[in-house]
Amino acid sequence: MRFDIAKGGSGLTYEIRQIVNVANKLTEYGVEVTWENIGDPIHKGEKIPDWMKEVLIEILRDDLSYGYSPTKGVDETREFLAELVNKRGNVQINHHDIIFFNGLGDAIARAYSSIRVDARIIMPEPTYSTHLLAEVLHASFPPNTYRMNPYRDWSPDIRELEQKVRSHKAIVGILVINPDNPTGFVHSAETLKQIVEIAREYNLFLIFDETYINIVYNGKKTVHLADIIGDVPGISMKGISKEFPWPGSRCGWMEVYNYHKDEKFQNYIDTIVNQKMSEVCSTTLPQMAIPKIMNHPEYQKYLNDRIRHYERLSNIAYNSLRDVPYLIVNRSNGAFYMSVVFNEASLNDRQTLPIENPEIKRYVEKLTSERIEFDKRFVYYLLGATGICVVPLTSFFTSIPGFRMTLLDRDADKFEYIMKTLAEKTVEYIESAH
Known about the structure:
The chain is of the alpha/beta class. It is built from 14 helices and 14 strands.
């Protein structure tokens, strides 16, 4: 080409999917892979109940489900969702304040690409890869971050957040993921209110990714952004991919709060909507399904049953790993992820696991012969030796080595066996070069 046409940041990878290429290669050598890398409940055996399927069959009989929706989304669904917000009482919106997208990945891409190149969103560290990639692609620079502290149950460093906001004038917004992906941390109401106050004091807007807001367990409680935002401009991002669950629907939305309270924020939202017009609308059918499924008499019981299962797996994982030397383990209390950290200096480039198949051994040794993060090296050896596929924590834009796994197995006994294997192999790997 005449010159380099790729925008800065294109060298980043989405490790949650990237690890699949390695795992698929190992399946060719006969490895039976246990997929703990991606949050797809369907892939892990979640059975969609018949009542939910009947709701979708009924919608399919409606010719309107085959046509375009309004650009912002189906009016009836947006009115339904606005009413859910208004019942909470802290902030009032109408259906014009809700914008549908083809999944939250689409919403995130639009949100960041509509921000000026020299304006930045500060985000948690570690952070979910889709937000990270969208921020880097928009600005062509690494993101500004505030730490989630693994030595304090993954709670955010509010003091660091305030200091960075005060000193970095380019920061215009704060990202919060609640419950958090990748850590499973659930923010307390007190912490969230502190973040809202920082936004108010420094005239920022808020982005709250609340994909998992209704998946909280182990006795923890949290609040919606709508409960505490007051007069601060903000966006809540929500979807049905994980809660229904229907990840293949690619259906998510933004709830815009205090649109008229700030002219600059209003212009920003208008830019997002104008971009949205270029693709006409988002997929109609899943939007039409939202009120019918959420209002169904079986819905809340179905969701509660799933939450209890995630809670059980959360505790199995925590109890299996918490006493493992070299690991820092925090109990996951929301979403269906758990991140585990290696103690400082416990990893090096000499550690291995025994791999019986010579072809697999050669393949893993080739992968690990390059200069890679130490936790990625561990992940490759774990995959080659056991078939357990997790994601290196450093792929979530943090220097802290560790791994993220899911809590989605439907068979609790099988999951407990996997966790015990993971615990044993972690010790074996670390002690192989000590």
